[in-house]
Amino acid sequence: MKRVIILGCTGSIGSTALEAIRTKHLDLQVVGLSAHTNAPQLIASAHEFSAQAICLTSTTLEEVSSLNTYSYFSGLERMLHSLDADIVLNAIAGFDGLRASLAALECGFDLALANKESVVCAGPYLFEIAKKYGSTIIPVDSEHSAIAELLKGHERQQVQSLIITASGGPFRTLDADHFAAITVEQALAHPTWNMGKKISIDSATLANKALEVIEASHLFGFDADHIEVVVHPQSIVHSMIRTRDGAVYAQLGNPDMTLPIVNALCTGSPSLVKPMDFTNLSLTFEQPDFKRFPLLGLAFEILRRKGSSALAFNAADEVAVHAFLARKISYPALVQIVMRTLDQKWDEEIDSFEHILALDAKARMVARSLI
């Protein structure tokens, strides 16, 4: 039985993982859990799944009978080092997840990664740490999980490009003249996925797809000229690969994160998701509008610039999204803050976690000055 630690167990990805373990009879043993703020649910899940240890990363967690308890991110690192495990599912949202990813890799655990910021912000450094400690990074995002599965059937030299699908978000057909009037509630109303606030806003601006483009480049070794994005509103095709002979191979499935999560944690599990019903199924595809959604185009520029541009993009986006959710800035201002932050030179190559923290702080300071 494979031993798993789930970080961010009360969020969307973590809850889906626990539900799959609960209902799909997976060959997984939960040994550790973390949450950021929801202590009651964290404790309840730990008792249900007979976990050994728990950590609350936002504040002090009082001792709980029969459980080893830890607090804050420093406690999370200690919890990881204290447990015997095979794999860590990192479902922590945002930049904070990077510290957890590095700690998990340094313990020698394989890393099922739902925290795209880890790859975007740390870049090659993250994979150097994984190699140093003999760990494997396994993507959990539905798009990257699909690509990983598709690449299993093809030699790398046979593949011309990766094709990442995007739903287009809630403003796919909205004229840019109306963007200034977009409300927080409208931006949070994603048409096909039920997600947290940050990722929902990122899906509205297509910043989330920009992050996925950068992540795909690092995960699979494809440069900006060999990654494509296509808008697919139904979210049935999760990703595709284009081979050198001109063929295109795709993975299709209903919008359900159970499959990519479980595939990252274990193999050979039957009946994970509802079978696809092709009755009256209609699929459409469109080219992305880089003029109305410039953050997506910025991702390709970032890949060509290299250095620490991706880290600056993520930092500026987190600052701008937080300001938008707080109703301090408009939707167009959100996009412009990220674009203007990236106007500066971000060409430093990352060589340590401390370097990442310093660059992140610098980018956030620049973004805040633009609010």
UniProtKB/TrEMBL annotation:
Q: Which residues bind 1-deoxy-D-xylulose 5-phosphate?
A: 116, 142-143, 167, 190, 203, 208-209, 212
Binding-site positions, NADPH:
10-13, 38, 115, 117, 196
Using the record's annotation, list all stretches that form the DXP reductoisomerase C-terminal domain.
Answer: 252-365
Q: Which cofactor does it need?
A: Mg(2+); Mn(2+)
Q: What is the lineage of its organism?
A: Bacteria, Pseudomonadati, Spirochaetota, Spirochaetia, Spirochaetales
Boundaries of each 1-deoxy-D-xylulose 5-phosphate reductoisomerase C-terminal domain copy? 137-220
**UniProt name for this protein:** 1-deoxy-D-xylulose 5-phosphate reductoisomerase
Q: Is tRNA-binding given among the entry's keywords?
A: no
What is the uppermost EC class here?
A: oxidoreductase
**What Pfam families does its record include?**
DXP_redisom_C, DXP_reductoisom, DXPR_C
MF terms from GO for this chain are:
1-deoxy-D-xylulose-5-phosphate reductoisomerase activity; isomerase activity; manganese ion binding; NADPH binding
The primary gene name is: dxr
Cross-referenced SUPFAM superfamilies, in alphabetical order? Answer: 1-deoxy-D-xylulose-5-phosphate reductoisomerase, C-terminal domain (SSF69055), Glyceraldehyde-3-phosphate dehydrogenase-like, C-terminal domain (SSF55347), NAD(P)-binding Rossmann-fold domains (SSF51735)
Reaction(s) the record says it catalyses: 2-C-methyl-D-erythritol 4-phosphate + NADP(+) = 1-deoxy-D-xylulose 5-phosphate + NADPH + H(+)
Pathway membership, UniProt: Isoprenoid biosynthesis; isopentenyl diphosphate biosynthesis via DXP pathway; isopentenyl diphosphate from 1-deoxy-D-xylulose 5-phosphate: step 1/6
- A GO BP annotation: isopentenyl diphosphate biosynthetic process, methylerythritol 4-phosphate pathway involved in terpenoid biosynthetic process
